[in-house]
Design a protein that fits this description.
The chain is built from one helix and seven strands. By secondary structure, it is mainly beta. It has one domain: Barwin-like endoglucanases (Beta Barrel), CATH 2.40.40. Strands 1-6-3-5-4-7 form a six-stranded mixed barrel.
């Protein structure tokens, strides 16, 4: 990671929503190539989709939303995920609807593969 990277180690405010691997138009495989039909984790990190021009694939994040904090990894991107937005992979459609759209505090732990 280059030291002139303006978002590494910074805290950002982002909008976060949720999606499932079985959504309309989804194949069950992330843009990074990981199959997620039976998991919402990768190496202990929650999987998120991001605008990869802001947070490249494999970026590591600490996300605080709705009083909860968890670590996540960017392994996907989506057509509606532009700018300072994230999409959290969840296990069911009902969980995605219940999660809705929220504001999150996102700490960038590592940008890209490092």
């Amino acid at each position: 990671m280059s030291r002139d990277d303006s978002t590494a180690y910074k805290t950002l405010t982002m909008n976060i929503s949720a999606y499932t691997s079985s959504c309309k138009g989804c194949s069950g495989q992330t843009a990074s190539g990981k199959w997620v039909t039976d998991t919402i984790y990768h190496n202990g990190y929650r999987i998120v989709a991001a605008d990869t021009s802001i947070l490249p694939m494999y970026s590591l994040l600490e996300i605080e939303v709705n009083g909860q904090s968890f670590k996540a990894i960017v392994l996907d991107r989506g057509g509606a995920i532009k700018g300072y937005k994230l999409d959290l992979l969840v296990d069911t459609y009902n969980n995605a609807i219940q999660f809705g759209r929220q504001s999150a505090t996102v700490k960038v732990l590592r940008k890209g593969k490092g």
